[in-house]
Structure formats: C-alpha cells, structure tokens
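User: Sequence recovery, please. Input:
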C-alpha cells in the first residue's frame, strides 16, 4: 500500500427513501460554534512565539500549546463556516506511484487536462510542459540520479520506483541541505512533532525501520557519516525524521478528493485532531492563485468562535470508533477524547447501527459478540437474530478488504463481489451509514462508473444512480452539511441523474422493479435539485471564495445546462397540453 493510500484510509467520510432524503430542503448548516471543539474551556494553554518561523501564519490564527495535545492552531477572531482559514503552498509534494504517469510531478495536475512529457533522465516523472519541469528541477536533479540508481538495483521492474514515503523523505532532505539546516524552512521541518521516544512500544517500529533502510539506499549513502550533511548525526536522528514525516504528512487529494500523493506542510500540520472536526484540508484548485493542485486550503466547516481551537481529522470519520482509535493510537500515538469518541454508550452511532426490526424509523446498536442484546433507540424492539447481523457485518468487512485489493488488478471480480455482498448487508438491516456497507457502496459506485463505456445501458446507469443515492444517504447521516465529501458525492449523483437515458421507457424492467430512479423530466428535476444541493455544500467544503473548488465550478455549469434543458421540457409539456386542449375543443 502506498503512503497516500495509507494516509487517505485514515482520513479522507437513514433513510429508507433515497428520493425523499435528497429532494428535501438543503439541510441548514450549524452556525453556532461547537463547544466540543474547544479544549481550553479552562485556559491551560500558552500562546507561543513563532520565533520567526511560519511566515504564512495569518493574523487570524495563533499557535498555542496545551499539555493535552501539544502545539495547535487557535483562532483570534470569529471565523464563518465556508471561509478559508489558511491557504498555503506545501513544503514538499510527491505523487503516489500509481499517479506518477497520470499527473504532473510539479503542479500535480491530471494529465487528462494537460499533455505530459517524461523526464528523459530517470524516465519516471512526468510534467505538463517544460515550464513545470524547470520549476521542479532544483529538487528533481538529485531525485533523478537517485531514481536511476534505485531502478538499477531493484530486484524486479515492479519494484523499480521507491514508494511515495521514501521519495517524500528524499525531497525533504535534499531541500533541507540546499536551503541550509539553519534556514526557517529546515527549522520548521525539524520542529514537527516526532514520536520516536514512544516508538519502541508501538506497532509501527517495523514501518520506521523499513523506511530508514530504504531512505539510506535511495540517497545512495555508504556510511552513517554521509547523513551529516542532511543534519542527521545518528540513527536516532534518522528515526526522528521518519517519525516526523509519518506523524505530519497529509494526503494530497485531487479536486474531487481522490488521494493522489502526500504533502508536508509544517504549518498545516500544527492542526490537531478531532473525529468531529471544525475544519478540513482541501486542494480546491482554480482561481488566479491556485492553479497548482498542491496549494492547500484549510476551510472552516462550521462557525469557529474567537479563541477556539481549529481541529481537523487525521482519520476517515465514516469508520467506527474502534477502527478510528486504532489508527490514532498506532500512527499518531494518542487516544482521542473528542465528543464522538466519548459519546455515551446509550447514543446509537449510525456508523455502527442496524435499522429497527419493526421499521419504526429508529436504529439499534450493531450487536457484537460481547453484547448481543440490541434494541431500537426509539421503540425498544429487540433484534431477533443478532448472530445473523454479526455474521453479515463480518462477511461484509472481508468482502470489502478483498474487493479493495482486487479493484485495480481485477475490477470485474471486485464488482461481482460488491454486487453480491451489498444486498446481504441490506437484508440484514444495515443502514447505508453503517460500516462496512457505506464503504462497499462507495466502492461499488466507483467500479460501476469505471465500467461505463460509450454504449452505456439503462440498467447500468440506473444501478449506478441507486448506489450513488445510497452512498449520499449514508454520508448524510454521518457528516455535517457542507462537508466536502458530501458535496462531491451529491455532485456525482446529480451528474449521473443528468446523463441522457439510453432507453427511458417507463415500462423498462428496471422501472417495474424499482421506483428509483425516476425517468424523463422527473429525473431531470431531481438531477437539478441534487446539483443545487451539492453546490451549496461544495461552496462550504471547498470554500466560498474558491467557488466550491473545481468540482463546484463544474456543478455550476451543469446546473446552467440543466436549467436550459428543463426549460425546453417545460415548454414542450406545456405545448403538448395546449395542443390537447385545442384538439378537445375541436379547434385546429
Ligand atoms: C500533526 S501533529 C499536530 C501538531 C502537534 N500537536 C505539535 O505539537 O506539533 C499530530 C500530533 O499531535 C498530537 N495530537 C493531535 N491531536 C491530538 C488530540 N486530539 N489529542 C491528543 N494529542 C493530539 C499527537 O501527538 C499527534 O501525533
């Protein structure tokens, strides 16, 4: 697994009627700052002097240190939801191996929007044009030699390029050497949090050791003293640097939130974690200043009061508590105390829930081996066969792991798995917000989309829409309105609903077995409403001043096109009705 995948897995997101879940009014965005976010109800924090570091720190923010979570970013004034709190160019950016061919290694733009040229030296990195290549050369000149050396000694072609973590550490070390170890740039890197001291008790010792060996090989070092020019005087220093990277690297995502690599930004990395974050890191792309994918923004997901801590998430918040906690302990070395993790056991978390067996609209906690008794939180009806639910969830997790593994090597097999397992979880009573159903729906949707060809069938399109709608319904039960993951999911659903129907006959087989999705003008109207809702959420999640990022701007164009199309439909229907009325009255 690449480091980008590793990180994105950690980040990175009920209604029985999906139609009604989507066609209601746009959920209002909470405008009150959340009391959960502040960890300084009693001031136990110290405002820190930046010592000339972090020149990009805006006056809106200050760095404070607490006993509980070390340094963090705090607001000095009220911040409105959807505002850009911080906009920065990362210190170091690398693409994950599977994106090296499809994206520019300088600006990280996808090759589909720009023809790319390959570096003739290493034959590994691609660029949009010579401008991008020149901009990257000061770092790539070291990397180019290292990549060639690595490929020459690799045991197989498949291992001919080191993973993104090794390449990112290489870039950090070359840049530190070139900028000088006493430069602000290098000091910011050196002061990033490391967990070297607690490593010996941690499950990630192996990852650190493996990375250390790989970095030494990548840099072409022959003696420990060779590391001194990088400011690394001992093995301990090297482990420290690796721990800093693992603790602070952030997944680089495309404008539609697909993980494509890793970045290191010491300033953004000062943000501490909550599983109920009030902020998020996005790479919105666009505008005059954000043409590089690697320009990152930290966006306020809800109003943040003056003097409140800015908190983002380090894990995928669609995961159940135990899985989130495991990652936070193993990778970040702390136990999360956020309100979601400390939620009373009497509150049912939609991530770990089963629908009420009496269909009263309530949910029951997902039964476990240790706690098989599960009752609906609303009507108290008990689940009659908890073992069946436990089994379904277990089989679902196994299928998810297998399908995720297979998706790039054998997409058909992966799709077969998701197609078969999803109905089992649904019939066991899992709502779309529940793990692993939500993750399976997302994967199923992407596998269906990947199988679209020029000749798309009505059934395939309708099945994709149903998967996308269930995915949106699941996310909506978990994530706050305005979360960019929700915005992107709504945009995808709206786009699918707006696709021309290949055979829109109301008597087609899919129509008889399911009332969703509708056909004709009703479908277009639903597409329009979904896109409007998506745009509203994207404007928050990617920042209002970014116009909702690249996806938000695309959605706006789709909305304009649909308005025209719906206008034609409305006129056509009105004309048809008027014609009928004229005929009935005997006029010609
Ligand atoms: C990316 S760094 C954040 C900045 C860090 N606090 C510092 O002083 O540089 C991640 C580390 O901060 C600490 N941290 C972040 N969020 C935390 C939380 N909610 N509770 C406790 N520690 C936290 C953990 O040590 C974690 O490994």
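Assistant: Recovered sequence (588 residues):
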């Amino acid at each position: 697994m690449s480091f980008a995948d590793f990180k994105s897995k950690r980040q990175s997101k009920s209604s029985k009627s999906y139609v009604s879940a989507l066609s209601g009014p746009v959920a209002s965005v909470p405008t009150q700052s959340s009391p959960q976010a502040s960890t300084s109800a009693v001031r136990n924090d110290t405002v820190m002097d930046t010592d000339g570091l972090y020149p990009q720190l805006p006056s809106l923010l200050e760095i404070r240190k607490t006993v509980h979570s070390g340094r963090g970013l705090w607001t000095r004034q009220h911040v409105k939801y959807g505002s850009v709190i911080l906009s920065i160019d990362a210190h170091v950016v690398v693409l994950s191996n599977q994106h090296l061919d499809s994206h520019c290694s300088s600006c990280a733009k996808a090759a589909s929007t720009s023809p790319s040229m390959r570096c003739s030296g290493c034959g590994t990195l691609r660029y949009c044009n010579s401008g991008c290549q020149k901009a990257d050369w000061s770092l790539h000149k070291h990397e180019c030699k290292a990549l060639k050396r690595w490929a020459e000694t690799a045991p197989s072609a498949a291992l001919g390029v080191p993973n993104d973590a090794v390449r990112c550490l290489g870039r950090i070390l070359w840049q530190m050497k070139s900028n000088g170890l006493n430069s602000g740039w290098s000091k910011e890197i050196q002061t990033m949090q490391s967990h070297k001291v607690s490593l010996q008790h941690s499950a990630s010792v192996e990852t650190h050791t493996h990375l250390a060996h790989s970095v030494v090989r990548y840099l072409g070092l022959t003696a420990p003293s060779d590391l001194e020019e990088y400011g690394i005087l001992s093995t301990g220093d090297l482990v420290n640097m690796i721990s800093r990277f693992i603790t602070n690297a952030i997944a680089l995502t495309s404008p539609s939130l697909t993980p494509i690599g890793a970045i290191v930004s010491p300033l953004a990395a000062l943000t501490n974690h909550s599983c109920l974050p009030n902020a998020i890191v996005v790479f919105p792309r666009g505008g005059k200043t954000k043409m590089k994918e690697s320009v990152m923004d930290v966006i306020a997901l809800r109003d943040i009061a003056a003097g409140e801590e800015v908190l983002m998430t380090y894990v995928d918040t669609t995961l159940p508590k135990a899985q989130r906690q495991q990652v936070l302990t193993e990778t970040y070395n702390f136990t999360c105390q956020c309100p979601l993790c400390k939620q009373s056991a009497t509150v049912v978390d939609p991530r770990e829930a089963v629908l009420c067996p009496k269909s009263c609209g309530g949910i029951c906690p997902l039964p476990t081996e240790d706690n098989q008794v599960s009752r609906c939180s609303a009507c108290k009806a008990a689940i009659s066969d908890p073992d069946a639910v436990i089994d379904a969830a277990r089989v679902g997790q196994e299928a998810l792991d297998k399908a995720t593994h297979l998706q790039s090597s054998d997409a058909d097999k992966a799709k077969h798995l998701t197609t078969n397992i999803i109905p089992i979880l649904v019939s066991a009573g899992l709502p779309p917000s529940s793990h692993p159903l939500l993750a399976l729906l997302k994967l199923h949707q992407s596998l269906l989309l990947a199988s679209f060809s020029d000749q798309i069938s009505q059934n395939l399109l309708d099945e994709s829409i149903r998967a996308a709608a269930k995915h949106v319904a699941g996310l909506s039960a978990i994530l706050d309105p305005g979360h960019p993951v929700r915005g992107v999911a709504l945009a995808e659903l709206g786009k699918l609903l707006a696709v021309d129907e290949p055979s829109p006959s109301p008597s087609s087989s899919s129509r008889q077995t399911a009332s969703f999705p509708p056909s004709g003008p009703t479908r277009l109207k639903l597409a329009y409403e979904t896109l409007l809702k998506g745009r509203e959420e994207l404007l928050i999640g990617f920042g209002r001043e970014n116009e909702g990022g690249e996806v938000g701007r695309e959605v706006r164009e789709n909305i304009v096109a649909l308005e025209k199309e719906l206008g034609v439909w409305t006129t056509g229907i009105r004309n048809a009705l008027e014609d009928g009325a004229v005929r009935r009255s005997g006029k010609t």
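Residues 8-42, 508-513 have pLDDT under 50 and may be disordered.
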